[in-house]
Amino acid sequence: MSKSDAFETALLRLIFNATAIANLADNAASAPLTSLYVSLHTADPGEAGNQSTSEIAYTSYTRVAVARSGSGFTVTGNSVSPNSTIAFPAGTGGSGTASYFGIGTASSGSGVLLYSGAITSPIVCGSGITPQLTTATAVTED
């Protein structure tokens, strides 16, 4: 089974831009999310994982909120990317290598992990390092 190209685009716009899918899904919840939270992971959290599965833990690390709108993400066809570089807090200690990123619903804890994917060039994290994901970071439906 697969989704049509038009539905893949509509689904990404619903999730990342809060744009309704006419006659099917809308963003009219009593308190819809206004941000999605990007995380870094030392290993693939997998389909059974949540936002805290294999999440990196260098000192001062936190997830980064990105607006759930056209100002936060750009959807082009069946792909979505952040509109600007996502900079995580600079490390003040600890270490770890971020080889995956995730996008989920919670600022901390074991929130729902919506998407995860490999980082093209893993990021060695630790004291004095500010990990970043660029606008080339993409989620693709297919």
Characterise the protein shown here:
Helix content is 9%, strand content 35%. The longest helix is centred in the first third of the chain and has 13 residues, at 5-17. The chain is built from 1 helix and 9 strands; from the N terminus they run αβββββββββ. The strands form 3 sheets. Strands 2-1-6-7 form a 4-stranded antiparallel beta sheet, with no helix packed on it. A hairpin with an 8-residue loop joins strand 6 (95-104) and strand 7 (113-126). It has one domain. It has one helix at residues 5-17, and strands spanning 35-41, 64-67, 73-76, 79-82, 86-87, 95-104, 113-126, 132-133, 139-140. It is mainly β and 142 residues long. The mean pLDDT is 96. Pfam families: Gp80 (PF23140).
Annotation keywords:
four-stranded antiparallel β-sheet, Gp80-like, mainly beta, 142 residues
Could you give the topology of this structure?
Elements: H1 5-17, E1 35-41, E2 64-67, E3 73-76, E4 79-82, E5 86-87, E6 95-104, E7 113-126, E8 132-133, E9 139-140
Antiparallel strand pairs: 1-2, 1-6, 3-4, 4-9, 5-8, 6-7
Helix content: under 10%
- Uncertain runs: none
Mean of the pLDDT scores?
A: 96
- Which descriptor suits the 3D outline? elongated
Q: How far is the N terminus from the C terminus?
A: 10 Å
Structural class, from secondary structure content? mainly beta
Rg, rounded, reads: 15 Å
Report strand order across the widest sheet.
2-1-6-7
Question: How many helices does DSSP assign?
Answer: 1
Q: How many runs of DSSP E, i.e. beta strands?
A: 9
Pfam families: Gp80
InterPro entries: Gp80-like
